[in-house]
Write a structure and sequence with these properties.
With about 170 residues, the chain is of the alpha+beta class. It is about 45% helix and about 15% strand. A four-stranded antiparallel β-sheet has the order 2-3-1-4, with helices on one face. It starts with 5 loop residues before the first helix and ends in a 9-residue tail after the last helix.
Amino acid sequence: MKPYARWKYVVLIAVALFGAVYALPNLYGDEPAVQISTRSGDPLPASFEDRVTDALAASDLKSRASGMENLHWVVRLDDETIQLKAAEALKRALGPDYVVALNLAPRTPAWLKALGAQPMALGLDLRGGVHFLLDVDVDAARAKAVTRYLTELPALLRKQDIRYSSRR
Protein backbone atom coordinates (compact mmCIF):
# COMPACT_ATOMS: atom_id res chain seq x y z
CA MET A 1 0.00 0.00 0.00
CA LYS A 2 1.23 3.53 -0.86
CA PRO A 3 1.73 6.01 2.00
CA TYR A 4 -0.09 8.84 0.13
CA ALA A 5 -3.11 9.03 -2.09
CA ARG A 6 -2.56 9.09 -5.87
CA TRP A 7 -4.02 12.62 -6.23
CA LYS A 8 -1.32 14.01 -3.93
CA TYR A 9 1.38 12.69 -6.28
CA VAL A 10 -0.43 14.20 -9.27
CA VAL A 11 -0.68 17.59 -7.55
CA LEU A 12 2.99 17.46 -6.57
CA ILE A 13 4.09 16.68 -10.15
CA ALA A 14 1.78 19.37 -11.59
CA VAL A 15 3.15 22.02 -9.21
CA ALA A 16 6.74 20.99 -10.01
CA LEU A 17 6.08 21.24 -13.77
CA PHE A 18 4.33 24.60 -13.34
CA GLY A 19 7.31 25.92 -11.35
CA ALA A 20 9.80 24.57 -13.90
CA VAL A 21 8.02 26.30 -16.80
CA TYR A 22 7.99 29.64 -14.99
CA ALA A 23 11.65 29.25 -13.97
CA LEU A 24 12.78 28.62 -17.58
CA PRO A 25 13.24 32.34 -18.51
CA ASN A 26 16.09 32.54 -16.02
CA LEU A 27 18.05 29.99 -18.05
CA TYR A 28 18.02 32.12 -21.21
CA GLY A 29 19.90 35.02 -19.61
CA ASP A 30 20.26 38.59 -20.83
CA GLU A 31 21.80 40.25 -23.86
CA PRO A 32 23.31 43.73 -24.22
CA ALA A 33 20.84 46.33 -25.41
CA VAL A 34 20.38 50.07 -25.78
CA GLN A 35 17.11 51.50 -24.53
CA ILE A 36 15.77 54.76 -26.00
CA SER A 37 12.93 56.96 -24.78
CA THR A 38 11.95 60.60 -25.10
CA ARG A 39 13.21 62.94 -22.41
CA SER A 40 9.71 64.37 -22.00
CA GLY A 41 8.03 60.97 -21.66
CA ASP A 42 5.97 61.41 -24.83
CA PRO A 43 5.45 58.43 -27.16
CA LEU A 44 8.12 57.84 -29.77
CA PRO A 45 7.33 59.09 -33.30
CA ALA A 46 6.20 56.68 -36.02
CA SER A 47 9.36 57.17 -38.10
CA PHE A 48 11.65 56.40 -35.17
CA GLU A 49 12.75 52.99 -36.47
CA ASP A 50 14.22 54.64 -39.58
CA ARG A 51 16.21 57.12 -37.48
CA VAL A 52 17.67 54.33 -35.32
CA THR A 53 18.51 52.18 -38.36
CA ASP A 54 20.16 55.11 -40.14
CA ALA A 55 22.20 56.05 -37.06
CA LEU A 56 23.49 52.49 -36.63
CA ALA A 57 24.20 52.11 -40.37
CA ALA A 58 26.18 55.36 -40.38
CA SER A 59 28.46 53.88 -37.70
CA ASP A 60 28.69 50.44 -39.40
CA LEU A 61 26.91 48.72 -36.50
CA LYS A 62 24.38 45.91 -36.80
CA SER A 63 21.72 45.04 -34.27
CA ARG A 64 20.19 41.65 -33.57
CA ALA A 65 16.71 43.12 -33.20
CA SER A 66 15.10 46.47 -32.69
CA GLY A 67 11.59 47.37 -31.59
CA MET A 68 9.18 48.77 -29.02
CA GLU A 69 9.19 47.07 -25.63
CA ASN A 70 7.30 48.54 -22.67
CA LEU A 71 7.01 52.06 -24.14
CA HIS A 72 10.76 52.17 -24.91
CA TRP A 73 12.66 51.47 -28.09
CA VAL A 74 15.10 48.61 -27.43
CA VAL A 75 18.00 47.81 -29.75
CA ARG A 76 19.48 44.37 -29.01
CA LEU A 77 23.17 43.89 -29.81
CA ASP A 78 25.73 41.09 -29.94
CA ASP A 79 28.22 42.16 -27.25
CA GLU A 80 29.14 44.93 -24.82
CA THR A 81 31.68 46.69 -27.06
CA ILE A 82 29.11 47.06 -29.83
CA GLN A 83 26.60 48.17 -27.19
CA LEU A 84 28.87 51.05 -26.10
CA LYS A 85 29.56 52.11 -29.69
CA ALA A 86 25.85 51.97 -30.54
CA ALA A 87 24.91 54.05 -27.50
CA GLU A 88 27.39 56.76 -28.48
CA ALA A 89 26.26 56.74 -32.12
CA LEU A 90 22.60 56.96 -31.11
CA LYS A 91 23.26 59.79 -28.63
CA ARG A 92 24.97 61.78 -31.38
CA ALA A 93 22.31 61.06 -34.00
CA LEU A 94 19.20 61.54 -31.85
CA GLY A 95 20.30 64.62 -29.93
CA PRO A 96 19.30 65.88 -26.49
CA ASP A 97 15.56 65.19 -26.87
CA TYR A 98 16.06 61.45 -26.30
CA VAL A 99 17.46 59.42 -23.41
CA VAL A 100 19.80 56.66 -24.58
CA ALA A 101 20.65 54.16 -21.84
CA LEU A 102 22.62 50.93 -21.67
CA ASN A 103 20.48 47.99 -20.66
CA LEU A 104 20.38 44.22 -20.44
CA ALA A 105 17.35 42.79 -22.26
CA PRO A 106 16.09 39.30 -21.41
CA ARG A 107 16.36 36.60 -24.09
CA THR A 108 13.07 34.99 -23.07
CA PRO A 109 11.43 33.27 -26.07
CA ALA A 110 8.04 34.51 -27.31
CA TRP A 111 6.19 31.36 -26.24
CA LEU A 112 7.29 31.85 -22.64
CA LYS A 113 6.36 35.54 -22.77
CA ALA A 114 2.92 34.50 -24.05
CA LEU A 115 2.51 32.37 -20.92
CA GLY A 116 3.45 35.37 -18.79
CA ALA A 117 6.78 33.92 -17.70
CA GLN A 118 9.48 36.50 -17.01
CA PRO A 119 13.01 36.17 -15.66
CA MET A 120 13.55 37.01 -12.02
CA ALA A 121 14.89 40.53 -11.54
CA LEU A 122 18.23 40.24 -9.79
CA GLY A 123 19.47 42.96 -7.50
CA LEU A 124 22.92 44.50 -7.66
CA ASP A 125 24.24 42.09 -5.04
CA LEU A 126 23.39 39.10 -7.26
CA ARG A 127 24.61 40.76 -10.48
CA GLY A 128 28.09 41.43 -9.14
CA GLY A 129 27.59 44.48 -6.95
CA VAL A 130 28.50 48.08 -7.54
CA HIS A 131 32.05 49.23 -8.15
CA PHE A 132 33.01 52.79 -7.28
CA LEU A 133 36.14 54.59 -8.34
CA LEU A 134 37.08 57.38 -5.99
CA ASP A 135 39.71 59.89 -7.06
CA VAL A 136 41.16 62.23 -4.44
CA ASP A 137 42.76 65.52 -5.39
CA VAL A 138 45.63 65.37 -2.88
CA ASP A 139 46.87 68.90 -3.57
CA ALA A 140 43.42 70.40 -2.99
CA ALA A 141 42.97 68.35 0.19
CA ARG A 142 46.35 69.57 1.47
CA ALA A 143 45.49 73.19 0.68
CA LYS A 144 42.17 72.90 2.53
CA ALA A 145 43.89 71.34 5.55
CA VAL A 146 46.46 74.17 5.69
CA THR A 147 43.69 76.78 5.45
CA ARG A 148 41.74 75.04 8.20
CA TYR A 149 44.81 74.91 10.47
CA LEU A 150 45.53 78.60 9.89
CA THR A 151 41.98 79.57 10.85
CA GLU A 152 41.88 77.29 13.91
CA LEU A 153 45.36 78.15 15.23
CA PRO A 154 44.50 81.54 16.84
CA ALA A 155 41.57 80.00 18.74
CA LEU A 156 43.80 77.18 19.99
CA LEU A 157 46.50 79.61 21.12
CA ARG A 158 43.91 81.77 22.97
CA LYS A 159 42.50 78.67 24.65
CA GLN A 160 45.99 77.68 25.84
CA ASP A 161 46.60 81.30 26.97
CA ILE A 162 49.60 81.67 24.68
CA ARG A 163 50.30 85.17 23.46
CA TYR A 164 50.84 85.70 19.78
CA SER A 165 50.78 88.49 17.26
CA SER A 166 49.19 88.17 13.89
CA ARG A 167 51.27 89.62 11.09
CA ARG A 168 49.69 89.95 7.76
